[in-house]
């Protein structure tokens, strides 16, 4: 087999330009096509045709002055061609007895609809991609594909699944949306509330996978965090009156400010206690605090994301671990626990309580969570317990907890950190 020649620098540069344009414009193009065709799967195929055309033509013609408009025009032509070939249209034309002039008029109306600039197209696409009829995994994949403009390979690599598996997941998701005839429209009332919760959940899942990878050799995947923040900012601009959207943006911005400090020179994990706070990104922190202020200015009680952002803000404002207002963080976690009824939140509250009122008080809360089924197999439960036991001088018990936590995590960097902490507790008694 002949190995294809490596792309030239100019070709590689062009591909980067095409990728950048696609990331910025694909959601708008797919959204406009989906609005007119009523089929998300078909809309993405037509948009992909435009992308292929760009890769074929731009090397010869150069990048057009308005690349997004160029892609939209090509996609529009592909859509009209598809419309003309539609058996449904032919059957409808025969049934109505329309002549050629009438048919051309219908095509013109259809083309004109594609020319309309509908500001809600992208927002509708977000809500469809995150429709609750889909599984969590499908919502994440479809959102990154349709709204984020990521390739199937990029998404598969980010979540450490085979590309074939990820592709099948996306195909099934689009078929499901078509089968249940999800309308390309904005939900209203209670349905909007339910769907916005699904949208925020998807964005936070994407961000968290980047902030703390669940498996693999990398502790963090910054590209996923950046994509989640980009989509969050877009959403905040589209629905500026939703405080929880601003709360999630605030949370992601402030958390992302610590990304670089979470990993040491050799790729090892660095805990919050040991992080160099001078390396935290002050620009992201200021953006996050501004987003949190917008959430608070809405006047409503803070929701789960805004509460978590408030907790992150306490860390961001403190010059050191010792200067942190742990009592306020514990109170915020208590409010968050009342909203979510989450044992994971209770575990985090236990950490804050230990900082504010002593390791013994925190350990009592942790031990009360031992029977929670949701925490069985969760590596952070023995991690937190080990940390508190170590603070109390019960080093042999602490070592056992760190070792157990190491067997539960699927992330290689976290496992190494936990085994190091176990070793630091000293040899076993009687060994």
UniProtKB/TrEMBL annotation:
<dbReference type="GO" id="GO:0003677">
    <property type="term" value="F:DNA binding"/>
</dbReference>
<dbReference type="InterPro" id="IPR036388">
    <property type="entry name" value="WH-like_DNA-bd_sf"/>
</dbReference>
<feature type="domain" description="DUF6596">
    <location>
        <begin position="195"/>
        <end position="295"/>
    </location>
</feature>
<keyword id="KW-0238">DNA-binding</keyword>
<comment type="similarity">
    <text>Belongs to the sigma-70 factor family. ECF subfamily.</text>
</comment>
<dbReference type="Pfam" id="PF20239">
    <property type="entry name" value="DUF6596"/>
</dbReference>
<dbReference type="Pfam" id="PF08281">
    <property type="entry name" value="Sigma70_r4_2"/>
</dbReference>
<dbReference type="InterPro" id="IPR013325">
    <property type="entry name" value="RNA_pol_sigma_r2"/>
</dbReference>
<keyword id="KW-0731">Sigma factor</keyword>
<keyword id="KW-0804">Transcription</keyword>
<keyword id="KW-0805">Transcription regulation</keyword>
<feature type="domain" description="RNA polymerase sigma factor 70 region 4 type 2">
    <location>
        <begin position="128"/>
        <end position="177"/>
    </location>
</feature>
<feature type="domain" description="RNA polymerase sigma-70 region 2">
    <location>
        <begin position="28"/>
        <end position="87"/>
    </location>
</feature>
<dbReference type="InterPro" id="IPR013324">
    <property type="entry name" value="RNA_pol_sigma_r3/r4-like"/>
</dbReference>
<dbReference type="GO" id="GO:0006950">
    <property type="term" value="P:response to stress"/>
</dbReference>
<dbReference type="InterPro" id="IPR013249">
    <property type="entry name" value="RNA_pol_sigma70_r4_t2"/>
</dbReference>
<dbReference type="Pfam" id="PF04542">
    <property type="entry name" value="Sigma70_r2"/>
</dbReference>
<dbReference type="InterPro" id="IPR007627">
    <property type="entry name" value="RNA_pol_sigma70_r2"/>
</dbReference>
<dbReference type="InterPro" id="IPR000838">
    <property type="entry name" value="RNA_pol_sigma70_ECF_CS"/>
</dbReference>
<dbReference type="InterPro" id="IPR014284">
    <property type="entry name" value="RNA_pol_sigma-70_dom"/>
</dbReference>
<dbReference type="InterPro" id="IPR046531">
    <property type="entry name" value="DUF6596"/>
</dbReference>
<dbReference type="GO" id="GO:0016987">
    <property type="term" value="F:sigma factor activity"/>
</dbReference>
<protein>
    <recommendedName>
        <fullName>RNA polymerase sigma factor</fullName>
    </recommendedName>
</protein>
<dbReference type="GO" id="GO:0006352">
    <property type="term" value="P:DNA-templated transcription initiation"/>
</dbReference>
């Amino acid at each position: 087999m002949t190995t294809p020649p490596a792309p030239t620098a100019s070709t590689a540069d062009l591909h980067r330009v095409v990728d950048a344009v696609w990331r910025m414009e694909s959601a708008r193009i797919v959204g406009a096509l989906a609005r007119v065709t009523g089929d998300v799967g078909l809309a993405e195929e037509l948009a992909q045709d435009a992308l292929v055309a760009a890769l074929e033509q731009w090397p010869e013609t150069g990048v057009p002055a308005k690349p997004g408009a160029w892609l939209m025009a090509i996609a529009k032509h592909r859509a009209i061609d598809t419309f003309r070939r539609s058996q449904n249209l032919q059957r409808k034309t025969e049934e109505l007895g329309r002549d050629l002039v009438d048919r051309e008029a219908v095509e013109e109306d259809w083309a004109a609809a594609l020319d309309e600039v509908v500001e809600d197209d992208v927002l509708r696409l977000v809500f469809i991609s995150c429709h609750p009829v889909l599984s969590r995994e499908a919502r994440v994949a479809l959102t990154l594909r349709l709204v984020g403009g990521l390739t199937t390979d990029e998404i598969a690599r980010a979540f450490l699944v085979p590309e074939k598996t990820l592709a099948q997941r996306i195909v099934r998701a689009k078929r499901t949306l078509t089968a249940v005839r999800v309308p390309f429209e904005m939900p209203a009332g209670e349905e909007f509330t339910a769907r916005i919760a699904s949208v925020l959940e998807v964005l936070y899942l994407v961000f968290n996978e980047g902030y703390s990878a669940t498996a693999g050799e990398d502790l963090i995947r910054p590209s996923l965090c950046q994509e989640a923040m980009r989509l969050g900012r877009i959403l905040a601009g589209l629905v500026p009156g939703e405080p929880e959207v601003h709360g999630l943006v605030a949370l992601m911005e402030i958390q992302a400010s610590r990304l670089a400090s979470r990993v040491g020179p050799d790729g090892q994990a660095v805990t919050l206690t040991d992080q160099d706070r001078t390396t935290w990104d002050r620009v992201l922190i200021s953006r996050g605090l501004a987003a949190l202020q917008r959430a608070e200015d809405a006047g409503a009680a803070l929701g789960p994301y805004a509460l978590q952002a408030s907790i992150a803000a306490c860390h961001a404002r403190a010059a050191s671990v010792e200067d942190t207002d742990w009592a306020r963080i514990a109170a915020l976690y208590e409010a968050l626990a009342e909203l979510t009824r989450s044992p994971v939140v209770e575990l985090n509250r236990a950490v804050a309580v230990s900082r504010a009122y002593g390791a013994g008080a925190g350990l009592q809360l942790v031990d009360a969570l031992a029977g929670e089924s949701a925490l069985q197999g969760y590596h952070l439960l023995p991690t937190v317990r080990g940390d508190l036991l170590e603070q109390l001088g019960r080093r042999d018990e602490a070592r056992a907890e760190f070792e157990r936590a190491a067997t539960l995590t699927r992330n290689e960097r976290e496992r190494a950190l936990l085994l190091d902490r176990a070793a630091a507790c000293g040899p076993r008694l009687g060994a």
